[in-house]
């Protein structure tokens, strides 16, 4: 059976070792070293492991004791979920510049439907590359991506060239790709199901494809129908945007720490330009403006002020930013500055997104 157009263009973006990578970004002394977020030598489990730790077999959900046995030089780091959320929202702002059809799965991954996109770019692969470049330029973090005609294949594809890579499965490649794919790599097939399939002589997609829908339903219940469809490239689940934007912001991390407030004003001017662009792009205004300051010792401070009216343009809000900067003396040199708007005018009727279809 051949798949018939029109095809959607779906991107699955997956951050590489997200929690661990954020910790290494914020703490230069951890870069290049095997670290585990969470866990501990006596109790707890690993929430995330850096790629340096993964080389020793350290994985998420592994006990801290076992992780330390596998990698004696492993460094345990306490999770900082508020920081991970902050970076995650920054990354999502990039996604929304390309499409409003964004479905976050977690802090570190999301589906994007770019069939119709804000850039007018017909190539989903080029959009994925551009998004990954933007993420690195604006956050210093690497992301991988999978691109294909549906969410299922895009998610499987995003794991193929990790880390810091991407894989496109074009429409004409889908059937062969799925027939050759080991069943344990099918998204949703866990260890128990994979073992059951192996015992039944089902090792790759083509083996699965030989089973009738009745056989698969008898063997795997409701999941049997799902397996019957996905191995044939049929997965019609749409990207479901579910968001209320609570803030819009922009920030910059400096290559060298700065201590001059005059120099900081110059940097904030550029950040404000970017914030104004994002506010206009999203047709958003806000009342509460926040100045974010991260010091050279990695401590962080925010200063906020709520106005009586909604603002969007730089000439309106930048005097407030300067006021917040001079509000009190800085306690140290600064490595990051950011400006964000909260208390947004987003309490409005949810728009209905019309999904157009184009050739892939």
TrEMBL record:
UniProt-annotated location(s): Cytoplasm
Catalytic class of the enzyme: transferase
Obligatory cofactor(s): Mg(2+)
Catalytic activity: DNA(n) + a 2'-deoxyribonucleoside 5'-triphosphate = DNA(n+1) + diphosphate
Active site feature: 109
The EC number(s) this enzyme carries: 2.7.7.7
UmuC domain boundaries: 10-190
Domain of life per record: Bacteria
GO terms of biological process kind: DNA repair; DNA-templated DNA replication; error-prone translesion synthesis; SOS response
Stored InterPro entries: DNA/RNA_pol_sf, DNA_pol_Y-fam_lit_finger_sf, DNA_pol_Y-fam_little_finger, DNA_polymerase-Y, DNApol_IV, PolY_HhH_motif, Rev_trsase/Diguanyl_cyclase, UmuC
Signal peptide residue numbers: none
UniProt remark on cofactor binding: Binds 2 magnesium ions per subunit.
Gene3D superfamilies: 3.30.70.270, 3.40.1170.60, 5' to 3' exonuclease, C-terminal subdomain (1.10.150.20), DNA polymerase, Y-family, little finger domain (3.30.1490.100)
Family as reported in the entry's similarity comment: Belongs to the DNA polymerase type-Y family.
Purpose of the protein: Poorly processive, error-prone DNA polymerase involved in untargeted mutagenesis. Copies undamaged DNA at stalled replication forks, which arise in vivo from mismatched or misaligned primer ends. These misaligned primers can be extended by PolIV. Exhibits no 3'-5' exonuclease (proofreading) activity. May be involved in translesional synthesis, in conjunction with the beta clamp from PolIII.
Protein name from the UniProt record: DNA polymerase IV
């Amino acid at each position: 059976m051949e798949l018939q157009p029109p095809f959607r263009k779906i991107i699955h973006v997956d951050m590489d070792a997200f929690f661990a990578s954020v910790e290494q970004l914020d703490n230069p002394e951890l870069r290049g070293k095997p670290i585990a977020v969470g866990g501990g030598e006596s109790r707890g489990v690993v929430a995330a492991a850096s790629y340096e730790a993964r080389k020793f077999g350290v994985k998420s959900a592994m006990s801290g004791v076992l992780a330390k046995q596998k990698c004696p030089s492993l460094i345990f780091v306490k999770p900082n979920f508020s920081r991970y959320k902050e970076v995650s929202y920054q990354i999502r702002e990039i996604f929304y510049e390309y499409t409003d059809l964004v479905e976050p799965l977690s802090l570190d991954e999301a589906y994007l439907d770019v069939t119709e996109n804000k850039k007018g770019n017909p190539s989903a692969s080029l959009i994925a590359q551009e998004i990954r470049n933007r993420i690195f330029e604006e956050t210093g973090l690497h992301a991988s991506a999978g691109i294909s005609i549906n969410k299922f294949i895009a998610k499987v594809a995003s794991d193929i060239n990790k880390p810091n890579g991407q894989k496109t499965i074009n429409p004409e490649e889908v059937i062969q790709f799925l027939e050759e794919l080991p069943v344990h790599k099918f998204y949703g097939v866990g260890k128990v199901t994979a073992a059951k399939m192996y015992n039944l002589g089902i090792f790759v997609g083509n083996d699965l494809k030989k089973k009738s829908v009745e056989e698969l339903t008898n063997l795997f219940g409701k999941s049997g129908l799902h397996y019957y469809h996905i191995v044939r490239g049929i997965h019609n689940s749409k990207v479901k945007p579910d968001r209320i934007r609570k803030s819009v912001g922009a920030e910059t991390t400096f290559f060298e720490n700065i201590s001059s407030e005059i120099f900081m004003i110059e940097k904030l001017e550029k950040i404000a330009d970017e914030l104004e662009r994002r506010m206009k792009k999203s047709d958003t205004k806000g009342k509460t403006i926040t100045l974010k300051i991260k010091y050279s010792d990695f401590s962080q401070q925010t200063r906020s002020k709520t106005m009586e009216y909604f603002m969007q343009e730089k000439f309106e809000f930048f005097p407030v930013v300067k006021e917040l900067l001079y509000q009190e003396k800085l306690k140290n040199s600064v490595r990051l500055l950011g400006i964000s708007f909260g208390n947004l005018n987003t309490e409005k009727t949810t728009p209905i997104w019309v999904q157009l279809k184009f050739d892939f």
